[in-house]
Amino acid sequence: MKIICYGVIKMEESRIKNWAQKNNVEVKIVHADLCVENAELAKGFDGVSSEGNLPVGASVYEKFRQYGIKQLAIRQVGVDNQDLAAAKKNGIKITNVAAYSPRAIAELGVTDAMYLLRKIGIYQDRMAHGDFTYDESTISTEIFNCTVGIIGAGHIGGASAQLYSALGAKVLACDPVYDASLEPYVTYTNLDTIFAEADIISLHTPLLPSTKNIINKTAISKMKKKPILINVARGGLVDTQALIAALKNGQISAAALDTLAAETDFYNKKDMLNSLPEDYKELKAMPQVLITPHIAFFTKLAVKNSIEIALNDAKTIISGGEVKSVVNL
Ligand code: NAD
Asked: How remote is the CA of residue 26 from the centroid of ligand 1, in Å?
């Protein structure tokens, strides 16, 4: 069996090779993300795995179909860069890794929230200018006196809820799908109640037409507590211009952004200082904003699991078996 893996980062290489050896599968490693220009490299392979955020559409799946390939195993959760219907039309089963380590992402979100709650960015900025003072504008609140609103209480939202609950916060959650196992940690409610009551709002929905810009001008106008916004999900969930305006006028007191709407231009690239988009520069200049380069997933356990689960699924489908992780049935 031969599988081609696209979008492989350095840290994955040895783990992919170990999996290949253990499973007696020949694996070709391609560092570039899968796209129409390099889809032809898959000719002669039985299966494909990929990771990354570049849009992948019909022209790639058509090529795979011509090569007799029947699956594409994504080594990540988000499949918003894939055209699921076009893949299905071409007989390509797309699988994702729904839960390689929900705690990895949840823990970054909570870390960010604590950093912003204690105004560390603002103090760092002051100290960089020789100012070691504190005042009414930088007074903080203990986390156990905060209400946290989780939007999207799935794997990662649920793990975040558990962590905030363990720290003593009151946790509200909003999700069209009810999960009884979260009852010890959350009070289910609606979006407007979260906007009205939460001191910290944490986003954990996938990027869908229904969730795109879920945090927009109207949503922000309903926020009553000048909340901290945490986005470790997808940049497209937030209307960036509306967020910048809200950070400037204080409707949102602080924000942590692991993902940004325009990130495909600079994601995992070096020497980008001169070509960053204006909205990125504006956010980066604010001491109450914490930006990380889409690394919430990046832990040892998550990297190991995303490779092993994705490649095991690829192998099963290629061998004629069925897996539960197909996202375009
Ligand atoms: P999940 O599918 O387990 O949970 C998503 C939840 O969102 C589901 O329970 C779903 O019902 C809910 N949802 C959908 N539409 C909603 C809406 N309009 N309002 C409220 N809830 C809604 O997914 P997950 O594993 O928790 O991941 C969530 C997202 O996190 C992923 O889709 C991905 O975009 C992102 N993610 C980011 C990183 C990172 O490194 N920053 C890593 C992994 C995942």
From this structure: 33
